[in-house]
Design a protein that fits this description.
- With 124 residues, the chain is mainly beta.
- It has one domain.
- Helices cover 10% and strands 45% of the residues.
- It is built from 1 helix and 8 strands, in the order E-E-E-H-E-E-E-E-E.
- It has one helix spanning 43-54, and strands at 2-6, 9-20, 26-35, 65-70, 79-84, 89-95, 102-106, 110-114.
- Strands 1, 2, 3 and 4 form a 4-stranded antiparallel sheet that branches. Strands 5-6 form a two-stranded antiparallel sheet.
- Strand 1 (2-6) and strand 2 (9-20) form a beta hairpin.
- The longest helix has 12 residues, at 43-54.
- 11% of the residues are buried.
C-alpha cells in the first residue's frame, strides 16, 4: 500500500478488483481508505468485503468470481480494463470519453460551477 497525503491526514489505500474468472470482465473495483490512526485491513479482509459488495448485484455467480489486488494508481480515468485470466494481470482494452463540464447559472444566485453532461451544457 502507498501512503498518500491529503490535507493533514495521512492515509493508505488498499485496492482490489473482483472479476469474472472465465471472461476477465471486471465486476467491482474496491478501495479501502485507512485514515491516520485507523486500523488497516489485511488482504483477506479487503477480498472478503469486495466480494460481499459485488454479490449485492443480482445475477452474479460467486463460483466465477476472483479477486486481484492492485495498486491504487493502476487504473486511470477514461480507460476501460479487464483482467487477463491466463496471466492474472490488469489489461487496458480501450478508452471511454470523459464527460465535459461547463459553467451554468444557478437561479437567483449568480454563476456557479458544477459538472454537467455535455448534452446539458448551458451556454452563457
Amino acid at each position: 500500500m502507498i501512503a498518500v497525503r491529503q490535507g493533514r491526514l495521512a492515509r493508505k489505500v488498499a485496492a482490489a478488483i473482483v472479476y469474472d474468472a472465465v471472461t476477465g470482465r471486471i465486476q467491482h473495483v474496491h478501495r479501502h481508505i485507512t485514515l491516520e490512526g485507523g486500523l488497516e485491513p489485511d488482504r483477506c479482509q479487503v477480498e472478503k468485503r469486495a466480494l460481499e459488495i459485488s454479490l449485492q448485484r443480482p445475477g452474479r455467480e460467486v463460483s466465477r468470481m476472483k479477486v486481484l489486488h492492485i495498486s491504487d494508481e493502476a487504473m486511470r480515468p477514461g480507460k476501460i480494463y479487464r483482467v487477463d485470466v491466463e496471466s492474472v494481470e490488469l489489461v487496458e482494452i480501450g478508452t471511454r470519453p470523459i464527460p465535459r463540464t461547463g459553467r451554468v447559472r444557478a437561479v437567483g444566485q449568480g454563476e456557479t460551477m458544477f459538472p454537467l453532461v455535455v448534452g446539458e451544457l448551458v451556454e452563457q
